[in-house]
Amino acid sequence: MDGFESNFIRENIRMVREAIAGAAIKSGRQPGDITLVAAAKTKPASCIRQAIGAGIDAVGENRVQEMLKKNQQGAYEGAPLHFIGHLQSNKVPKVVGVCDLIESVSSKTLLEAIGKNADSKGIRQDILIEVNIGREPQKSGILPEQLEEILELASGTRGIKVLGLMSIPPFPKENDRYCYYFDIMFKLFVDMRAKKYDNVSVRFLSMGMSDSYTDAILAGSNMVRIGTAIFGER
Predict the structure, then answer these.
(1) How many domains does the chain have?
(2) 70-109 CB burial, b ≥16 within 10 A, e <16
């Protein structure tokens, strides 16, 4: 990595941190309450190492094979690794135990597959439940009314620990904002936190990306997944 690229990533992270801090304080929290996940899809190991050195909290990857390749290159040393993309059940063995957190658990079938694989390895895999808050047929995730059912399933599933929720809301229409969907997600998060389930410890609400993370934080998010605003356009 040349000096220009290194400084570019570091300066971008500084600006993102400033924006996170402003939104956190406006929402009545501290900047340190917000987890910054660097979404590193297509980015080389050298860029990821620079982002870790500049103080991001975790690295997020979308593609299993790409993640495994970069993991072999030591790309994630010094930061937790999150899987944030669509995960197929047949790829579960390659992700369980490699990632610190699987954010995109989008179905009962996937939850059970992760639990079974983790239990066979003698570990517990931390996960988030992905909610299709916009009910978009092209996106994965459970529907809001299915949340209680999947949490009941999680409570009886060995090998997993549910730590909260994740969502990718619909892109807003012109002159609109994400806030409507963020508000609904926060209400689900609060409702989930008020209930008691085995294997569930509600800590994270992961929502907000490069074009929406300040709105998400103002609505209650405490984990944001930032790619373009850190690394530039893909």
Answers:
(1) 1
(2) bbeeebbeebbbbbbbbbeeebbbbbbebbebbbbbbbbe
